[in-house]
Amino acid sequence: MSHGIRIKDLPKSERPRERLVEKGADALKNSELIAIILRTGLQGVSAIAIGEELLQRFGTLTALERASLEQLQKTKGIGRDKAIALKSAFYPGAPHGSGVAWRSAVARHSRRHCRSFA
């Protein structure tokens, strides 16, 4: 897993939450949307890097959605609580595999929890 730069060290205009508020969920990569759900990374590993690792490991959002809590937790940086957060992000339904429902769920989650950025 690449370590990458910490999100809080990025310019505000490049941080996933701020970009979502300014430009919407469609402007973000899937790894950035995952980072919003994860909230934190590990020491020296950003939440974005963990999101990238999850996407590499599972290949598609559909596979990530179908992964069990145990499978998710095999990724370094994903414990029980973060695995639950990921699973809950997929719950709001609609067509599986498109990523559209998931992106909408992340956007709703972010609007509720990121009001200070608006």
Q: Provide the low-confidence segments as ranges.
A: 94-98
Task: Tell me the count of domains.
Answer: 1
CATH architecture: Orthogonal Bundle
Q: How many E-type strands?
A: 0
- Binned strand content: under 5%
The H/E string reads HHHHHHH
Oligomer: single chain
Number of helices: 7
Question: Which structural class is indicated by helix and strand composition?
Answer: mainly alpha
The shape, in one word, is globular
Mean pLDDT: 81
Fill in the CATH topology: DNA polymerase, domain 1
Rounded to an integer in angstroms, the radius of gyration calculated over CA atoms is 13 Å
Helix content: 40-55%
Biggest β-sheet strands, sense, barrel: none
Compute the separation of the termini in Å: 32 Å
Please give a structural write-up.
With 118 residues, this protein is mainly alpha-helical. The protein has one domain (7-117): DNA polymerase, domain 1. The protein is built from 7 helices and no strands. It has helices at residues 16-23, 30-38, 47-58, 61-66, 69-72, 80-90, 100-113. Helix 2 (30-38) crosses helix 3 (47-58). It is globular. Mean pLDDT is 81; it is low at 94-98.
